[in-house]
Design brief:
Blueprint: E1 4-13, E2 16-26, E3 31-35, H1 42-50, E4 57-62, E5 68-71, H2 85-89, H3 97-106, H4 122-134, E6 140-144, H5 152-169, E7 172-177, H6 180-183, E8 189-193, E9 197-201, H7 203-207, H8 210-216, H9 223-230
Parallel strand pairs: 3-7, 3-8, 5-6, 6-7
Antiparallel strand pairs: 1-2, 1-4, 8-9
């Protein structure tokens, strides 16, 4: 059985249909990225999976023992509030020092426990949010625009960490993102959402789908070019026959696929 299965999912907000007849599954160990413009229903899908929103039509089925870890877009903490990373991770319940140390190590920031939350860089802060999501050793890790505000090397490093987490825990990962050029390299499956599922498949298949190109463009600054430049797990050659493989993308151009998304 899939960890999560959505069948004919429909959600209306404020009288407007934001999701229409969406079918979606995710299995253990899979990394799935959902891409789409603003207002395309990406966050509504995530909220339905978490259980924060009840679908108007269709249903969401979850493994009864499913444990979910969630990394939000951002979290505001009062800069004047003295709070160490270890203290933040132990809220609201009692979490042992070893559990905190293990989670920080898995998130790639083993030395931050005694640092003040207000003193962290953007990248460190997101790693701490990741560590918090990993405390329960989740079966499914949900990332909602988790690298928003990070520069491209920071984003690429964060997603590399996610791949390591997936390997270590064997968990599934569901990412919502606009940063197609970085995210796609790590994904087993990409779902292009715009109120409904426009197309889905491996990154290569989705990147060449006309529905995807209609949303994100095909020019050299479009997501397709950035994705191909960035990383290619399957080693399909570039159209020019050069077959470049640029690693994990810290050297890729920094233009966002769609800046206003």
């Amino acid at each position: 059985m899939s960890l999560v299965s959505c069948e004919g999912l429909g959600i209306r907000l404020g009288g407007k249909t934001v999701l229409d007849r969406v079918n979606f599954t995710i299995d253990r160990g899979e990394i799935v990225t959902v891409v789409g413009p603003n207002g395309s229903g990406k966050t509504s899908l995530l909220r339905a999976i978490i259980g924060a929103v009840v679908p108007d039509t269709g249903r969401v089925q979850k493994d009864p023992a499913l444990k979910i870890g969630y990394v939000p877009q951002k979290l505001h903490i009062d800069a004047n509030l003295p709070m160490t990373v270890a203290r933040f991770l132990s809220l609201p319940g009692a979490v042992g020092k070893k559990a905190v140390a293990d989670a920080l190590a898995q998130a790639g920031v083993p030395d931050l426990a005694s640092r003040q939350m207000s003193a962290l860089s953007g990248g460190q802060f997101q790693r701490v949010l990741l560590a918090r999501a990993l405390l329960e050793k989740p079966d499914l890790l949900l990332l909602d625009e988790a690298t928003q505000g990070l520069d491209q090397p920071g984003s690429a490093a964060f997603y590399r960490q996610i791949e390591e987490v997936r390997q270590a825990l064997g968990c599934a990962v569901l990412m919502i993102s606009h940063e197609l050029h970085v995210v796609m390299s790590a994904s087993d499956r990409v779902i292009c959402l715009n109120g409904h599922v426009c197309c889905e498949g491996t990154p290569d298949i989705v990147a060449s789908a006309p529905e995807y190109r209609a949303l994100f463009g095909t020019g050299t600054m479009g997501a397709l070019a950035l994705y191909r430049h960035d990383h290619d797990h399957h080693h399909h050659h570039h159209d020019d026959g050069q077959g470049h493989d640029h690693g994990h993308g810290t050297d890729a151009p920094s233009e966002k696929a769609n800046e206003d998304a």
